[in-house]
Specification:
The protein is of the alpha+beta class and about 575 residues long. The protein contains nine helices and 28 strands. Helix 1 crosses helix 9. This is Purple acid phosphatase.
């Protein structure tokens, strides 16, 4: 008897692809057809490059519960059978003198069950508070409301759960919310849609992005850093600005208006109280305060599966979502591969080693600043991190890398060490969520726009700016045309959606904000195709002959195209 277990998923995938083609009426390319000729879509001058921050008195940002009732409710994945529920109770304080609330004064309970109004299980969590202190004349201190985190365990896959959170003894329980668990890790079991967004902020553009994203109905959200831009405010001025140092040149410290975090939590609650959001820190989360303390808001407000993934640091961690293993890396902590400060690298190496690609075929990494970037903004800023970590990610066959930081969209051809490589990851920059700093429009290869090697100094790590050692830009710091590894770039705000079909095919779609009212009109769309028979991590990827790669890729490409026509014929 013939074994059809491998053929069936492939047949389903191609039927899915053909259906997409028939419905949309257009051709969607795949990475098998790459590398693609570089394409640039210039900024549309009829659009605004940015917009003002949403004011704190906007109804979406104002507190609308009383006393110790929960607000800012959010979900995050823990393990395949557990999920974190986070919320805030009480009132934050801001002023010259603040007194922290007692986190033990209110309980952290979650009631949940499979039927609305019937909560058959209960769990308890922990609560904490944090302060943001500025011992400078005229600046205001902040202490948070009580922040709760509780983990629900023993959940069944693909199941709806109804829940309330709060303190039943007061009584102060939230309204009922609902979420649906993701499928268990398996090679043909995936989240329905994964939304990817970066550098969101809290502007009118941010509102459009979240509205558009919500319309696309994701089952998981990946937030790749720079969440609130609370540090674009001055505590006394209470107004967001595109350039903090320009607007406040005499500020004794780059202070941060912490109530923006509370406003952001309220703004996001309708979405992230039902859809898990996984975050990683960006530079706008550093938020320095007295005594050299940093990242206090980020570290306190968000629950992430750090302990569950063996990292023990909220700056980097990993998790599974169906057949996808996600690795979230921290660019603003040590990432060295040697020496004493190599905890993150050592953890990453062990995490990648343990990945079973027969269970989670897809391997996706994310961090805030991009390694591959052809825009002038942040050009080669984190070159040191690339030099320390890229080989390890390549060795273990990472499929896709998501980053933000640059306020524009860019998708790369498969690349490794600045060279086109059929086994390199697809790097995608989505730092275009809508923040107040405006969209980036200048490219490093535009005349007069190449940064100097003294520009773009990272907040963490050394400076490793380099001139290219080979290719058309050999001996130069910048290309004179769009680099060959940059497949597509456009200066617009938006978000991305990843739809994984099976162990080899995933559809990536970038949705521009201006297309929110247009059906099936994405700014960029491509099938990302894994080639495990060509790029298995067990094979010596490094130094692999590109001619051999190209031949193998062409073979796979034409086999896939042939199958596509066969399935199309069957469908018709």
């Amino acid at each position: 008897m013939k074994d059809h277990t491998q053929a069936q998923p492939m047949l389903v995938t191609f039927i899915f692809i053909v259906t997409k083609l028939v419905v949309s009426g257009k051709h969607i390319p795949s990475t098998l057809q790459g590398p693609f000729d570089p394409t640039t879509i210039r900024f549309d001058p009829s659009l605004r490059r940015g917009s003002d921050d949403i004011p704190m008195d906007d109804p979406r940002l104002k507190k609308n519960v009383t006393s110790m009732f929960p607000e800012q409710i959010a979900l995050a994945l823990s393990t395949p059978s557990s999920i974190w529920v986070s919320w805030v109770t009480g009132d934050a304080q801001i002023g010259p003198n603040v007194t922290a609330l007692d986190p033990t004064s209110v309980a952290s309970e979650v009631w949940y069950g499979k039927e609305s109004g019937k909560y058959t299980s209960k769990t308890r969590g922990n609560a904490t508070v944090y302060s943001q202190l500025y011992p400078f004349e005229g600046l205001l201190n902040y202490t948070s409301a009580i922040i709760h985190h509780a983990r629900i365990d023993g959940l069944e896959p693909g199941t709806k759960y109804y829940y309330k959170c709060g303190d039943s003894s007061l009584p102060a329980m939230s309204e009922e919310h609902v979420f649906e668990t993701l499928p268990l890790p398996a090679q043909n079991s995936y989240p329905r849609r994964i939304a990817v967004i970066g550098d969101l902020g809290l502007t009118r553009n941010s509102s459009t992005t979240i509205g558009h994203l919500t319309k696309n109905d994701p089952s998981l959200i990946l937030m790749v850093g720079d969440l609130t831009y609370a540090n674009q405010y001055l505590t006394i001025g209470g107004k967001g600005v595109p350039c903090f140092s320009c607007a406040f040149p005499d500020a004794p410290i780059r202070e941060t208006y912490q109530p923006r975090w509370d406003g952001w939590g309220r703004f996001m609650e309708p979405l992230i109280s039902r859809v898990p959001m996984m975050v990683i820190e960006g530079n706008h989360e550093i938020e320095p305060q007295a005594a050299g303390i940093t990242f206090k808001s980020y570290m306190t407000r968000f629950a992430v599966p750090a302990e569950e993934s063996g990292s023990n640091s909220n700056f980097y961690y990993s998790f599974d979502a169906g057949g996808v293993h996600f690795v979230m890396l921290g660019a603003y902590v040590d990432y060295n591969s040697t020496g004493e400060n190599r905890a993150q690298y050592a953890w990453l190496k062990e995490d990648l080693r343990k990945v079973d690609r027969s269970v989670t075929p897809w391997l996706v990494a994310a961090w805030h600043p991009p390694w591959y970037n052809s825009y002038s903004s942040h050009y080669q800023e984190f070159e040191c991190m690339r030099q320390e970590m890229e080989e390890l990610l390549y060795q273990y066959g990472v499929d896709i890398v998501f980053s933000g930081h640059v306020h524009a969209y860019e998708r790369m051809n498969r690349v490794y060490n600045y060279t086109l490589n059929s086994c390199g990851p697809i790097y995608i920059t989505v730092g275009d969520g809508g923040n107040i700093e405006k969209v980036d429009v200048d490219h490093a290869d535009d005349p007069g726009k190449c940064p100097s090697q003294g520009d773009n100094i990272p907040e963490n790590g050394g400076v490793c700016h380099l001139n290219f050692s080979s290719g058309p830009a050999k001996g130069k710091f910048c290309w004179e045309r769009q680099p060959e590894w940059s497949a597509f770039r456009e200066s617009s705000f938006g978000h991305g959606i990843l739809e994984v079909s099976n162990s080899t095919y995933a559809l990536w779609t970038w949705h521009r904000n201006q297309d929110v009212y247009n059906e099936d009109s994405p700014g960029d769309q491509i099938y990302i195709v894994r080639q495990p028979e060509l790029c298995s991590p067990s094979k010596p990827l490094k130094g692999k002959n590109e001619t051999e790669q190209g031949s193998a890729a062409q073979s796979v490409k034409w086999s896939s195209i042939l199958l596509l026509f066969i399935v199309a014929f069957v469908v018709y």
